[in-house]
Amino acid sequence: MYIPQEKYLRTVKAELQQRLNIISQWNIQPGSRILEIGCGQGDSIVILANLVGEEGHVTGVDPAPLDYGDPFTVAQVHANLKSSALGPRITFEQATLQEHLESNPDTQYDYAIFTHCLWYFGSPEELNPMLASLRGRAKRLLIAEFSLDARGDRTTVPHLLATLAQGEESSRVAGVNYDSNIRSLHTPISIKKAASEAGWVLDKESYVDNPPEALDGRREVQAVLSKEYEKGIACEPDEIRRRFAEALVEALKAAIDSLGPGEEVRTMSSWLGCFA
Amino acid sequence: MYIPQEKYLRTVKAELQQRLNIISQWNIQPGSRILEIGCGQGDSIVILANLVGEEGHVTGVDPAPLDYGDPFTVAQVHANLKSSALGPRITFEQATLQEHLESNPDTQYDYAIFTHCLWYFGSPEELNPMLASLRGRAKRLLIAEFSLDARGDRTTVPHLLATLAQGEESSRVAGVNYDSNIRSLHTPISIKKAASEAGWVLDKESYVDNPPEALDGRREVQAVLSKEYEKGIACEPDEIRRRFAEALVEALKAAIDSLGPGEEVRTMSSWLGCFA
């Protein structure tokens, strides 16, 4: 896929700004040893590696295939980061958290971090054992995920509704549409519940608004308004579930139509939880 | 249940105003013969009987039990209306539409009207045969139902989300929770589709804002935030469906929390369709 360079840079900048807004809330100290779970292409890693300084280290684990990603693959971006000045402070590992912890049984971390990755999990039940396995391995647990909260702003209502629509889809066709961005709809409450069950104690929670340029909201809206999504609904054999899925799409379209001239879909704010 | 008279009168007034706003869009002529389906206690009938004048007539059919309703039952309200000056222009029949049409095979109507009753149907599939049976018996078909559209107003987002939550519930436990207000989530698109399949042609559609005093939004929010609703979700054996239902309730709570000081939940606007 060809993306004009200017547009691509704008997107990258917005994504980095979003991560920076989140991570700057966590007051991470130089010299920290960090484990980032579900690091993807490494958007947060760049910022974290900068914060921990020369004495610190950031390990990013993600089981995603290395050829995932567009216009650059995971492998390309990782190689680029590794060859940068921050390279020595970064380790990437293509592995699940479990694999990583088992193959490094003595490594301890100051922070275990999940930034905007829980919704990609194959199933919401995967979170509990992960959080349990981090007990005794990390001093603090930091989690950021989009909230289900439009925060009174009508330009974020479409992102909320597109998220609910995909949450409905994933409750109906779990495992089938692996391309969906929201396969595992976690919320502040479900995250706090999972953390508590794993023995973590909530220290602080807050919300961070995302920059207007962040594309997550628009991307989720496009996914739900796609022909493919419509086809998926049309295949649903249960009439009443199909109707409910259609109603969610209709509510989304209405929310977009209600935006004023010049108003664009904005990404919802992120919820941040800090556990000890 | 005891309701202070002043509060009860305010509620009745808001409900009548809401129906008046809707019905006044339809330009109903004096002398008209009207069939109202799902007339309930007769909120719309009062207004319609007034509009059609002495030469007109309004027949209201509803299969609901006559002891339904609080603080006054359907039977009480009907008896009261029948004994009023408008009484001679009104006929109430405890019957389904099918029963009514079959027992009055030669009666023709100028209008067949559904005002805010489709969501009470036991199943959304009930609408199609009803609309088909009205072909040749009524010249025009007028339908009003709440839209799934917050219309850019954050005070109506809770009504939208409470509606979606109950739509989800009815897709999961159809027929079980007969007390739910939304057992059959129809939307402008699903209504237009059903009408078209039954041979009706859309003449005009529009939206009408509901008065700030209308209680529908607050009532649906209360229903979803009730202990009973929570218990219903907790019983859901399918983990992923239970989580999605919980997420809808959480999104609703967030939408309420985001209201400013003095802001109250407002009822969504109504969608109106006029078919010939």
Automatic annotation (TrEMBL), chains A, B:
Gene3D superfamilies the record matches: Vaccinia Virus protein VP39
SUPFAM superfamilies for this protein: S-adenosyl-L-methionine-dependent methyltransferases
GO MF term list: methyltransferase activity
GO biological process, one term: methylation
Regions annotated as coiled coil: none
Keywords associated with the record: Methyltransferase, Transferase
InterPro entries the UniProt entry points to: SAM-dependent_MTases_sf
Protein's name in the database: S-adenosyl-L-methionine-dependent methyltransferase
